[in-house]
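Q&A log
Question type: sequence-to-structure
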Amino acid sequence: MPDLRPEPSLPLTETPLSPITSALPSVLVAGCGYLGEALAERFYSQGHAVTGLSRTVSSLHRFPVLSCDLSQAVSVRRLESLRPAIVVHCASSGRGGVESYRAVFLEGSRNLLETFPEARFFFTSSTSVYGQVDGAVVTEESPAEPDRETGQILREAENLVLGGGGTVLRLAGIYGPGRSVHLQRFLEGTATIEAGQVSRYLNQIHRDDAAAAIAHLAGLPSGETKGQIYNVADDTPLTQRACYEQLAEFFGKPLPPEAPPNLNRKRAWTHKSVSNEKLRAAGWAPRFKSFPDALRADPRLIPSIEALLES
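Response status: OK
Response body:
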């Protein structure tokens, strides 16, 4: 997903934008990057009228993508004539810190909610808001009390969205074609297994399954999703050690060496198993039930990471 931190927006015409219309509900995808692009393509293929927002405008999409600084109310309000029926906020902080989180997630959500008050609103948060360290299974009812300021900003944005009748999706770590930190580290030989008696859980979700989950919830009656939180994760959380054991077995290579754990990870140091039971009960099921399943079943995954390493 692209960096939507504040920067001068591209010039916009003074001519009002035409509403995005279709027989199906029109969709605005705010953050047309790694996840957002796949999501927008899914909506477009289903027959929705789609508009994307991105920091960098490209003509390669089959739908219009507009330049917009989500953190600036004036930039978002210029789009109000689009009048989308569904808004999905799936922009990222672009690896930024506290100020980027506040600008993109909190102010971005506020500006989108105020500009499109009639739209169904979906906000992609993160399972990093769960601060558990005891290996417990966490559901949407579990305490979400992150100790880092970035996680606290996400919670503030979640509460803003829920208070406005929106829907919060807490996404596990996203991987897929062109992105898999564990696969990439294993293949390039930089992976290490965290030393210690306890191996933390890795909660992951394939990008295509995450996009399918959002589209599925957007297709449900609004009353079913209004003010709800959903965990978006696959069926099989793996411990960090088990993940590399699976990779070693799959490729017929030795296990990575052990090393002290990195306690300053971006997603914080946590150890919990994220349940997707509520999302499954809503009628969604992942195509890739686990990371090892995707290694075998997604023909794009391994070649795309190998191509990254060769570039």
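Response note: The radius of gyration is 19 Å.
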